[in-house]
Every structure is written in structure tokens, then in C-alpha cells.
Amino acid sequence: MTILITGFEPFGGQSVNPSWEAVSALPERVGSCSLEKLRLPVEYGEAARRVLEKARELSPQVILCVGQAGGRDAVTPEVIGINLREASIPDNAGAAPAGTPIDPHGPDGLFSTLPVREMVEAIREKGIPARLSYSAGAYVCNDLMYTLLNHFRGTDTRVGFVHVPYIPSQGSPSLPQAQLTQALTAAIEAL
């Protein structure tokens, strides 16, 4: 199985993004899964465009996106993406949409097509804090999740999103980068 797994560049004045740190430290293979890693810009629309471009090239069975959620104290697979762009801060290209739909004709929300509960349990079994999240926010992470779920709706390509907390150098609460990578490995093994 081919998995396209993504993380983001730093944003919001940070010098690091734990999502990319964790993704980039993953091995090339986890079990029978071949991993293709992609670093994304923190830009509305552009992040999803790059994933879709890479997906056309790879035809992955799974697309697993990872993002930073400062303030969370656990690894949190997202249950749902919502059809909303609402920036609390401008993205890295300066865009700050407010109250605009991602797709004016799309459904209000779309559920992850990955086994999020099993992913949480697999992460917890490694002794790492994990729980489900019912809000991916309305920033670029949610924009990416919703766009991909909408694009691959009705296909065999499964899509999901996992938020990770800060790493210690960014503040608290946090988890060590090695634990974040271990959590992603466990989540992949649960697929």
C-alpha cells in the first residue's frame, strides 16, 4: 500500500512545525506500507493543490495529512472537516479569509475515511496521549482535510488528518518529536 503523508512548513512566527518534523523522521516503509512524504506550504488552497498534484503522480491508497495544533496535549486524529475558511491569523501568503466556504456547492462537513478510533487506540497502546478531535479548526489544516475528502469522495482513496501538539522547543503543552513520530507510525499500522 502506498501512503502519501504530509506535514507543514512553520507558520505564525514559529521556526519549526512539529508536523513536518515528525513526518520527515518516519522511515520509508511501515510494515507493508510505502510512505511518500510531502512538505506543504501553510497557504489556503495551495496546500491541497500540491497534495492533489502528488496524488495524481502516485495514486496512493491513503493520504494522511499531519498538522500542528498548539495548545493540545495529545495526538488527535480528526473526525470531520468543515466547509469553512476562517483565518485567526494570515496564512504564509498573507491570505486571511473570513466566513467563506471552501466549496460553495460542497456539503457542510465531510467525515474522515480513515479508522480514526483504531488509530487513537493504537497510539495509546504505545503509551502516547491520543484522543479524537471533532474540530480541525477553520485554518489551512481544515482547508486541506475538507478539500481532499471532497475531491476523493466516492473513490477508493482514503483520506484523514492528524493534529500533533507542539514539540518542547515551542512551548507547552508539548510532546517530544520522537513520540510524535512513534504516534504516526502506530496510526499507520492501524490502517
Structural features, described:
The protein has 191 residues and is an alpha/beta fold. The strands form three sheets. Strands 2-3-1-4-10-5 form a six-stranded mixed β-sheet, sandwiched between helices. The protein has a two-stranded antiparallel ribbon with strand order 6-9. A two-stranded antiparallel sheet has the order 7-8. Strand 2 and strand 3 (33-40) form a beta hairpin. Helix 1 crosses helix 5. The longest helix is centred in the N-terminal third of the chain and has 13 residues, at 46-58. The chain contains five helices and ten strands.
Topology of this structure?
Elements: E1 2-8, H1 18-24, E2 29-30, E3 33-40, H2 46-58, E4 62-68, E5 76-77, E6 80-82, E7 85-86, E8 98-100, E9 109-111, H3 116-125, H4 140-151, E10 158-164, H5 177-189
Parallel strand pairs: 1-3, 1-4, 4-10
Antiparallel strand pairs: 2-3, 5-10, 6-9, 7-8
Q: State the shape.
A: globular
CA-atom Rg in angstroms:
15 Å
Largest β sheet strand count, sense and barrel closure: 6 strands, mixed
Q: What fraction, in percent, of the residue positions are helical?
A: 25-40%
What is the helix/strand order?
EHEEHEEEEEEHHEH
Number of helices, counting only DSSP H or I runs of 4 residues or more = 5
In terms of quaternary structure, what is this?
A: single chain
